[in-house]
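The following record pairs a protein chain with its ligand, histidyl-adenosine monophosphate.
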Amino acid sequence: MKYQAPKGVKEYLPPASAQFERVREALLAPARLANYQLMELAIFEETEVFTRGVGESTDVVSKEMYTFTDRADRSLTLRPEGTAGVMRAVIESGMDRGQLPVKVFYVGPFFRAERPQAGRYRQFYQVGIEAIGSDDPLIDVEVISVAVQGFAALGLTGFTLVINSLGDGESRIAYRQALSEFLHTLSLDEVTKERARLNPLRILDDKRPEIISLLAKAPNILDYLNEQSKQDFIKVQKGLDALGIPYEINPRLVRGLDYYTKTTFEFIHPQLGAQSGIGGGGRYDGLMESLGGQPLSGVGFGIGMDRVLLACEAEGIEISAEVPLSCFIIPLGKEWELEAFEIGAKLRSAGLRIDFAFGDRSLKAAMKAADKSGAQFSFVLGERESQTGDVELKELATGAVQSVRLTDLAAVLAGAVIRTKGN
Ligand code: HAM
């Protein structure tokens, strides 16, 4: 019996996992600099957190949730997204009664029972940030800029930022009404009609070409924004302009989750084909209240790490490990293994990435392992090296050898690493 990971589950194993780590760190660093703090959250929640939070009319809730009952017959769901869970945790912990805005980030696996294909998985990974409790449109800009900085750190350039405003509650009611009236004039199939009844905005998100063409004359949401929503949207645009972040406005961008209000945005990478959304987010001013909390507003994003990796690949960006393997140490026989091991431990304490020839291998086999390890250098430690205090440090790519005092080793290796990074 050969076991396999469940269908559609994306896993990252070495060496590709080093790139995954780099993407995660590149996306998280700007969030930390903007003072967002880690939230390590439940991977499964009471199902209602998502049905109420994300909305019954969404594909995510109606078709894609992994829902199960536990041994006490409670309905639980593997998290398909992060925002509803953050909100549940903020309300539960009372953070909403402390200093506002609450600014948090999260990273980890999410689960949607979608048909797997390139860039679309059943277990995928998101980095997300949420800022809760501020109505200032500049915080929308901050959220967008954190994502942009993360992409820039990776060297990504081929994406477009698309923005829209869905307006506040009042504007949305007016638009919903106009859109419903328009949808009534169309001949839609029963399933689509039912979705339109639950939430007419969902129809704008329909990707079927026949629906897209039917919607050509649909009312434009931006014409229904009330004064406050209009001013807020203008402030978002001014903020983006001030930071030099280019964007396009698309009044059809409603996003696939029901909680959005006012600003919505998406990062599209056209080179990824059908799954081109590398990240998206927006405001969700009614979400906390709908989950039983106080009426605090919020804004955030979720970036699909899997798709960001694919985007880097599509742009030919090479992502290497943050700290390259500096040295592979080979003890010359069992008598020297402890001393060599101890030297390795000291070098690691000095911040160097070190590996070691474990097991009683022949020198030839150990040398081969050193070559395969991808290390920059290796050296052998035996009686002569131990007694003289000098090792022959070999640069594996060139075969060049230099004699280095054991006491200088950390400094020499560190210098070599810095030189390589600067190249
Ligand atoms: P979302 O647009 O559903 O938003 O997902 C965010 C990102 O996750 C997408 O842009 C995409 O890159 C990635 N993603 C989604 N589904 C999959 C999948 N099946 N396979 C691979 N990647 C996927 C949210 O989840 C919101 N919680 C974002 C947010 C935060 N809005 C406000 N705050």
